[in-house]
Amino acid sequence: MGNPIITLEGIGKTFKVAKRAAGVREAAKALFYRKHTFVEALKDISFSIREGEIAGYIGPNGAGKSTTIKVMCGVLVPDEGECRVMSYTPWKSRTAYVGQIGVVFGQRSQLWWDVPVIDSFELLRDIYKVPETRYRKNLAMLTETLALSELIHVPVRQLSLGQRMRCEIAASLLHDPRILFLDEPTIGLDAASKIAVRQFIKTIHKEKGITVILTTHDMNDIEALAERILMIGKGSLLYDGSLDELRGRFGSSRTLTVDYRDCSLPVDIPGAVRHSWSPQQAVYSFDNGKISLADILARLSEQAEILDVAVDSKSVDELILQLYKEHQI
Ligand SMILES: Nc1ncnc2c1ncn2[C@@H]1O[C@H](COP(=O)(O)OP(=O)(O)OP(=O)(O)O)[C@@H](O)[C@H]1O
């Protein structure tokens, strides 16, 4: 893994929001005095991302994910703290900076709605001043890997969500950015489109070594892509680690169901808890840290001929939910 490419130190952002009271009288009063409340969207956020990492940025609704992405993209200026991305402060020298990053907001489009996709691509080529040969090469690669050949001559408004998302991702990569920010790239997509998007992100990361920051509510995205998870809740960073570390913390308990040919007596296995038994099937739970699956099966096979085994671990959704509960968010 490379050197730090993104560094945030003590980033804070508070939004001032006008308070609206119900009723005509209150609305009239509001013309003269407006009451405000303050929303602390980010509180003292610090982390750094190394070049070539894929980091999943997760947290419940309203946690501050999009606000952080907007700060890192230079769309929002924080009230306090430092943010360095490559050699840039994102909200300064915007023109040079945007040429180095790709951004996809799942809920917003960077493509022009009424014109064919290829026209938007050409406009982006001109905005980012991509040399013609490089543009042609990238366009050919993206068209092939994202299966766009049927789509690029169609106006964006006629595309389905999944088709548009493939075009959005291509648009964000035409200029060979070093970092790709993806804010909910699989939102609203069907299962096949989600898998296609994940597969493409994996490929582009592997082939180009691009750094990826991904926000999502879909834990399958995290499981498929993120080597590292950053979790934010109520504006504060609450977890920074790998999925495996999270499994070690909450998810080491597994359930084993084993089918065997007639076994007349229940088998006790030190380190595993037996939950049910019959001459054909037994269910155990065990902790990876205490006894391995291989050891349990070895003990069982001394007593009976094993026909089939099934092992369940906690799903990523369950692990994340446990983390949310631990932090009461
Ligand atoms: N422009 C804004 N004006 C006022 N409040 C805002 C603005 N943008 C965000 N907020 C508030 O800041 C908080 C964090 O919002 P943000 O969009 O970053 O959350 P999020 O984690 O991306 O949520 P979601 O998963 O729902 O997209 C929320 O309370 C939100 O209402």
TrEMBL record:
InterPro entries assigned to the protein according to its UniProt record, in alphabetical order: AAA+_ATPase, ABC_transporter-like_ATP-bd, ABC_transporter_ATP-binding, P-loop_NTPase
Record Pfam families: ABC_tran
Family matches, as SUPFAM superfamilies: P-loop containing nucleoside triphosphate hydrolases
Keywords for this protein: ATP-binding, Nucleotide-binding, Transport
Descriptive protein name: ABC transporter
Domain ABC transporter: 22-259
Molecular-function annotations in GO: ATP binding; ATP hydrolysis activity
